[in-house]
Amino acid sequence: MNPNGQIAIVTGGGSGLGEATARALAAKGARVAIFDVGIDRAVKVAAEIGGIAVQCDVSNAESGTAALAEVAAKLGEPRILVNCAGIAIGMKTIGKDGPHPLDQYRKVIEVNLIGTFNMIRLVADHAAKLDPLQGGERGVLVNTASVAAYDGQIGQAAYAASKGGVVGMTLPVARDLARSGIRVCTIAPGIFKTPMMAGMPQDVQDSLGAAVPFPSRLGEPSEYAALALHIIENQMLNGETIRIDGAIRMAPK
């Protein structure tokens, strides 16, 4: 799909991978709606790219429905979705203070996995009602997993499970939506230069980058965005999860 002139939604688009993707889509001529719970940063990015910012809790059905309605009213019906909203915690299954709190585990699953599916189902429902474009295509949905889906480290039980769920649902959702001409792919990034990573000491960042076989550095958000754009533009990419990680395989810790 050519993004030029299309309506695109980027969740978690106020910073990091989402911000880079929102900017890349706007540069290609898409009209971008940035969904984020942190609305201040989303407003700033939206203003800079000529898009709109919408406050949205992706894990909440009513919030997602209201956000989609706002996009339809202000920009038009979306054909493109890039799911970048997510959270991470580090906590062992059994720690010094006892077992992993179940509410914290549940929260990660709700945002990363249920939130991703919530936005998929809502955007797909809108896109499926649109007229098909060239080749019968109506929409493209891109999700964000993580190499933790395959190489989860100590303390990543919740995070790895949530991202493994995103990987696991990619193919069946793509098969579900094939009859509507909607493609679904997932990106599994390695260690990227996100705001969380940028807050770490430089020597820690350098050490993490050195663990990547090649190129031995942290990934740039623009590199994630470039892959997201390629998925959107390449009609034969469907039902697949693509690692973008410099060939790293994470050690236990």
UniProtKB/TrEMBL annotation:
InterPro entries: NAD(P)-bd_dom_sf, Sc_DH/Rdtase_CS, SDR_fam
Pfam families: adh_short
Family: Belongs to the short-chain dehydrogenases/reductases (SDR) family.
PROSITE patterns, alphabetized: ADH_SHORT
Keywords: Oxidoreductase
Protein name in UniProt: 3-hydroxyacyl-CoA dehydrogenase
Record GO terms (molecular function): oxidoreductase activity
Species of provenance: Mesorhizobium kowhaii
